[in-house]
Here is the input.
Amino acid sequence: MSESAPTIATLRAGDEVDAVFACSRKDRLQARSGTPYLALELRDRTGAMPGRAFRDADLLAGRFERGDLVRVVGRVERFRDELQIDVRAIARAQQADPAAFLPVAYRDVDELEGFLEHLAREVHDPGYRGLLERLLADEALRAEWRRAPCTRAGHHAYLGGLLEHTVAVGTLALEVKQLHPRLNPDLLLCAALLHDIGKTREFTYGAEIGLSEAGRLVGHVQLGIQLLAEHPLPEDRRLPLVHCILTHHGPESAPGRRFGSPEALALYRINALDASVKGALEHGLP
Here is the structure.
């Protein structure tokens, strides 16, 4: 396979294909003649294209599974005004990096990380400031913070999406605390930066973004609380922060089913604002 292998976005009718893609669909179907064929969806970070394997379908099907990275040999054809790959050979790819096939943030991740550090420096309370410094000093956590999406199919559903959303919510919190000086500014900003920290443990990365076992069974809110419990914090700082994180999707998730602080209410509204606007921009208005 050439290092200059084409991407999905650059493929045109008549192109010969010898490249690695992510297989996000694999169905064994039957043609009208009764002959089996494979219906595939092949993806990279530039887009997706259907694939069809009409010859030796059952033989080829045994060489890979849905969710694998696969090496595909074939030709791009036009069928009913849609491009698809007529697959001649396909098998599980060896030594391919899944991250190279997943969608990525539109904004520069290094720049976003710099904004995160700037926002953390705007927190002055010693307890909250120390917590943020310890978390940002954790290189493994930082790597996951940079990589994680925010969702798998909703807003910010791409690598770096968590960092992009965190910076957006933190920036909004910075503005809100200036407009409403009676809010506890350090609590609000710290909660804004950490409300989705559990997403660093929620996902897996392969041909698609998946859920870890912990993400599936526990969810990112509780994972975030568990992560913060690994770092000491005075109780009078920990409880208000935990409450903000627990309720950032709304009061129904709170133990008393109501907001316990104006900072928790503010975080809920700010988080929903960024998530809903980003979702509308990416997927259209609801």
User: Anything to note?
Assistant: The mean pLDDT is 93. Residues 195 and 245 are 5 Å apart (CA to CA). The radius of gyration is 23 Å.
